[in-house]
């Protein structure tokens, strides 16, 4: 912070502050070191967009599954073994006519069970403020120039539901198995800032 | 808020950019596991960061300021203990301004709106926690999904209990939100609790 806001006495950066919080919480018996390590490991390794890619690939290859996913995202995602916090997911389907994209203007709501923790840009003031105000412009900056006739639906997650975009299956993938299809599905396509 | 530039996009990035970010994430979770606070109280602790500091702080810095605030407000740790551990004042948020609710009030589980109904967002400006963003207040939208009831964050953040309320996905046309400067064929759909809404 600058001197004008009266914080010029501050020397410690965020790493030092968090180290101090950790020492105090351990002293008070509020947390153990092993808990911290296991949380960091879980969110680094267990959750991530590859889970969502499995869901999308299944929906592309099994129409009954796709219908279940669109009707009750949480239950359909749990069928594939993915659950956890922030898991009350609604899947929204892209079509030739409609493009969906997800934001959280209030904070950083994101479907952890299928995408993991959100990337830094998703949490940025720039994305949060501008995606609702000028979605076509922001998408163009992401390299996605949608035709004027395509409807753009922005989903601002603000209560308990989290949103997952079901991207369209790319052309010329008829012969591919589910595993190969899953490898084509990107995080960005499931947020809605790109198409496949 | 308006006037921000390009989104700072990175195609590839680590889940935690620095070790202290992951530790902040875990410590915040530990406080929840210990029963010191829930999600609405945590979110509000960050909303109470003084605005210049809020804007100048990174995402996980805001988490760490919220955590320091809640450790003290919950009575688990004193401000002096935090300051002593750091060797200088530990940044914390401003005090809660909203009055404490004597009771969470009765649950509402039967939705009063249906898909297709036109609803207006009440033009209310609470000083406490809310999940109703300013940009939809006073605006008219259409209910597109009736979700099951959810815990009203506004109540959970400021009382000892919870209140269930129906939640709706409400779609607002771009022109309703942004007038003549709206981009064509765009809409924003947002989940709103029933008490944020009135029939239009």
Task: Briefly summarize what is shown.
The complex is a heterodimer of chains A (196) and B (200). By secondary structure, chain A is an alpha/beta fold. In chain A, 44% of the residues lie in helices and 11% in strands.
Q: Please report the distance between the alpha carbons of the first and last residues of chain A.
A: 42 Å
In terms of DSSP E residues, the strand content of chain B is 15-25%
Percent range for helical residues of chain B? 25-40%
* Biggest interface, residues from each chain: A-B, 70 and 80 residues
Major sheet details of chain A: 2 strands, parallel
CATH topology of the largest domain in chain B: SH3 type barrels
Rg over alpha carbons of chain A: 20 Å
Please state the CA-atom Rg of chain B, rounded to the nearest Å.
20 Å
Given as residue ranges, the uncertain stretches of chain A (5+ residues, pLDDT < 50) are none
Write the CATH architecture name of the largest domain in chain B: Roll
Number of strands of chain B: 5
Query: From the helix content, strand content and strand pairing of chain B, which structural class follows?
Result: alpha+beta
With strands numbered from the N-terminus, the spatial order across the biggest sheet of chain A is 1-4
Task: Please supply descriptive tags for the structure shown above.
heterodimer, A: 196 residues, alpha/beta, two-stranded parallel sheet, 4 strands, 44% helix, B: 200 residues, alpha+beta, SH3 type barrels, 2 domains, 7 helices, 5 strands
